[in-house]
Write a structure and sequence with these properties.
Length: 501
Amino acid sequence: MAEFVARPIIGLEIHVQLATRTKMFCGCPLEFGAPPNSRVCPVCGGLPGALPVINRQAFEYAVRTALALNCRIAALTKWDRKSYYYPDLPKNYQISQYDLPLGSDGRFEISAAEVGDAAGAESTSTAGTRAVRIRRAHLEEDAGKNTHEGLDHTRVDLNRAGTPLLEIVTEPDLANADETYAFCVELQRLVRHLGVSEADMQKGHMRFEPNVNVAITFEGREYRTPISEIKNLNSFRHVHDAVAYEIRRQVAAWEADRDYTLDKLGKMNFGWDDVRGVTEFQRGKEEAHDYRYFPDPDLTPVTVDDAWLNELRGGLCELPLTRVSRYVEQHGLSRVDADNLAADRASAELFDAAVAAGADGRTLARQFLSFWAAEANRRQGTIAKLGVDPAHMADLARLVHEGLINATTAAGVASMLIERRQSPTVIVEAEGMLQVRDEGAMERWINEAIAANPKAWADAKGIPKKAQAALGFIRGQVMKLSAGKADPRMVGELLEKKLRE
């Protein structure tokens, strides 16, 4: 039987809305949820004679992101008019960058932990990354928004028209839906770390357009299915599910018709129906000549000299995956734990500040990922937004690391700390929470627990299948008698010693 191999080929186009106060080429404020057409001027409204002015902050945000993507930054870049005719494009062209993008030939690493999350399982990888090539990164302006009201008319809101967008285009290096999902998650984390975008999916700050086709090897020949560009996906789940479905659909289409190939059908645009879980054909894909690109005569080219580039490069923060690798190396954390710690920049910087204040990294990481994360979730925020002094976090980690309190007590202290803003040492001493390590007191509690539970103690001593559970029960009774103050490690050691007597 002839061998059949299907290899997905996936690239991404991503539009990232930049977090500037004003639009790309005019002074209109960017305000999500403002009344329709209330943030429009002659420039973004496309009135004749209105001249655009470049938003410097948007340009710097774009260059900063391109640097973080390891792109080569163009010394000279220009602006081009991309012509097409939609109701939400008042000028009948979009200002974009065509043949001289500000960034090109980059590389972005994705985390194996994120690939594991997409697959619904925790990654066991320690190396944990793989590179995806970046073809280009360029600036452009967004269109307005069409709202279709039934069959007879469409409402057009131009508040979004002129919003600065960074378009990032990858090479087709992604191999499956899980990797595509991971790339999108990692990119969102990157732009948030850089402070260039809020990357709020609910507000449309990031829109993804996967380009999918499949290389099929059969009977010694390779066939390529048509390239499907799936338009305007605004959630990671939609990206994952749309790519996974499209791969299956294309393989099935080729098996049904051997002429279902790129050579015969070219490129096509599809939409995603999340309710039905299917892609839907929209139209044939336009080529560059269809847009009639030409340089915008109203905007001067931009020169990025070495001084400006070095200034922007010097302003980059520590990048997420660099921080993850540092946590693994410095604190001996698993890649997954380090990945979770680095997810939010402000919280990661708080962790670093607490370590600098004397906290043991492993102990503090356990606390961040357990009770500090729980406190943040209860308040629907991040750990950084709890407003806890890093020195107090370091003090709490020290109390646990030195065995003065146990992890359960520490969780209670953390809750008090948020309310009282006192040092953990002061709270622990005032509340009488210090862990008891006196061997005599331990012996009394152990003997009392054994006397009250003779059957459990007999099981711990004599029945191998029940021994572990029985010993755990006795340990729990000792902790209960001590009101949680007994040192669990010492309790365990003394119980083991008693078993050997």
